[in-house]
Amino acid sequence: MSKANDLRISAINRHRKRLFGDSSLKVYSITPAAGEAVVETFAKDWMGQRTDAITTSGGTGAWQFQVVAKTNWAATQAFMRSIVALTIGTRRWKITKIEEPIGESLVWKIRAEVEK
Prior knowledge:
By secondary structure, the chain is of the alpha+beta class. It has helices at residues 3-20, 73-76, and strands at 25-31, 35-42, 46-50, 62-68, 85-88, 91-99, 107-114. The model has no long low-confidence stretch (mean pLDDT 88).
């Protein structure tokens, strides 16, 4: 990895620890046979941030999460294209959009809405 990617990953992990501590991010997929199931747990190299203001009802609206992709993500992280939800601790989000890593960035961008 390049020095720029190393710096990006370091910033992602600092942001994650500031907002979520040592919590892990779990992503879920759904299949007709098994229903919804955890397909991967990320203990590090991810972050999340609100993209909408906090509402008067206490909801936090839309969020964007970034998960560092593996160098060979097309082969090893193909499951990311079909995730339907993610959790951090007891908090849960419904996936609304997934953007694959582009070029040198090697970051999955995931847009999600808080599930009530």
